[in-house]
Amino acid sequence: MKKENETAFQALTIIAEMVMKFGQLYVLNISSEDWEHLQSVRNGLEKVIHDNGYRMNYDKNIKQNIIKR
């Protein structure tokens, strides 16, 4: 069932790029408290993707960061 105002695919791909950037943070010095906040944000971004019928793709052999569920 589609949502009334489904988020545009282009917006979802930008959100997916943001999620992928989170992977680069583990090598940096981030406080535990900040890390918890960042994980919460990442989870929220992934939920937006999921709620629009897609899932994150972490396979580097596939160019799209999101794929239809």
Calculate Rg over CA atoms: 13 Å
Structural class per helix/strand content? mainly alpha
Q: Tell me the quaternary state.
A: single chain
Strand order across the largest sheet: 1-2
Number of domains: 1
Counted beta strands: 2
Strand content: 5-15%
Please tell me about this protein's structure.
By secondary structure, the chain is mainly alpha-helical. It has one domain (1-68). 49% of the residues lie in helices and 9% in strands. The chain is built from 2 helices and 2 strands; from the N terminus they run ααββ. The chain has helices spanning 9-22, 32-51, and strands spanning 54-56, 66-68. The protein has a two-stranded antiparallel sheet with strand order 1-2. α1 packs antiparallel against α2. The model has no long low-confidence stretch (mean pLDDT 92).
Characteristics:
69 residues, mainly alpha, two-stranded antiparallel sheet, 49% helix, 9% strand
Describe this structure in a few short sentences.
The protein has 69 residues and is mainly α. It has helices at 9-22, 32-51, and strands spanning 54-56, 66-68. It has a two-stranded antiparallel sheet.
